[in-house]
Write a structure and sequence with these properties.
alpha+beta; 10 helices; Alpha-Beta Plaits; globular; 4-stranded antiparallel beta sheet; 3 domains; about 250 residues; Arc Repressor Mutant, subunit A; disordered N terminus; single chain
Length: about 250
């Protein structure tokens, strides 16, 4: 058990996300819109849209909001124009932070993110400064309560083309190559496995151990970053043990 899964290490922050559900839904609608506008409205022929829809569903975005975002994107040249932007920087004690955003005003977003880092005692870095410390992977989450036993699940994962299986407390997390996440998820569902969610994420290649005070400072910065409407995902390279996550909860 590595304990480094984005799904597992951010469980203690779900309650705060739920309180900001309206903002979360807006961000999820935006990623569906952008994926549909870039690759077309049919998820069967648009892998990015299929992944965006899966992510939106995993966070309980209503179907009508998903459909509305796709229809809006399919409008003849109408609607907002967003671009994908990545920001990289360092939080307390040099913790690497990788940020993915969708913005219609690059200057505004960059200024907001730079300000957040400055106020938190960190600094925004040049492109490529921390990206090499992360890797893109697919993650598929399976609730242990409804899952086959681990040995059987390992076999199903291998047959479906998954790379690895992690045991994260109440969940199993299947790791895949980025391009394979939806195919593996569909194969597991076809095999009778109940899947909670699937998405692409960035994982730290070598997580770093931090003390509680550092973790608190970094998580405060991440909270501020995630409050920004343009920020979609924030990743860090702290090693989030169960003990550290519990201390952050308290």
């Amino acid at each position: 058990m590595s304990g480094h899964s984005k799904w597992a290490t951010t469980k203690h922050r779900k309650a705060a996300q739920d309180k900001k559900r309206s903002a979360l839904f807006s961000k999820l609608s935006r990623i569906v819109y952008v994926a549909a506008k870039a690759g077309g409205p049919d998820p069967a022929n648009n892998a990015a849209l299929a992944a965006a829809i899966e992510k939106a569903r995993s966070y309980s975005l209503p179907k009508d909001k998903i459909d509305a975002a796709i229809k809006k994107a399919a409008g003849a040249g109408e609607g907002e124009s967003y671009e994908e932007v990545v920001y990289e920087g360092y939080g307390a004690n040099g913790v690497a932070i990788y940020i993915e955003a969708l913005t219609d005003n690059r200057n505004r977003t960059a200024a907001d993110i730079r300000s957040a880092f400055t106020r938190a005692g960190g600094n925004l870095a040049a492109t490529g400064a921390v990206a090499f410390q992360f890797e893109r992977v697919g993650e598929i989450v399976i609730d242990k309560a409804t899952a086959p036993d681990e040995e059987e699940l390992l076999l199903l994962v291998a047959e479906a083309g998954g790379e690895d299986l992690e045991d994260n407390d109440e969940e199993f997390v299947v790791l895949t190559r980025p391009a394979d996440v939806m195919r593996v998820k569909d194969a597991l569902v076809a095999a009778g496995v109940s899947v909670k969610g699937a998405e692409l994420t960035m994982r730290p290649i070598t997580p770093v151990a931090v003390d509680l005070e550092t973790a608190r400072k970094v998580m405060r910065l991440i909270d501020v970053l995630e409050e920004n409407d343009d920020v979609q995902d924030v990743y860090h390279n702290m090693e989030m043990t169960e003990e550290l996550a519990a201390a952050l909860d308290s």
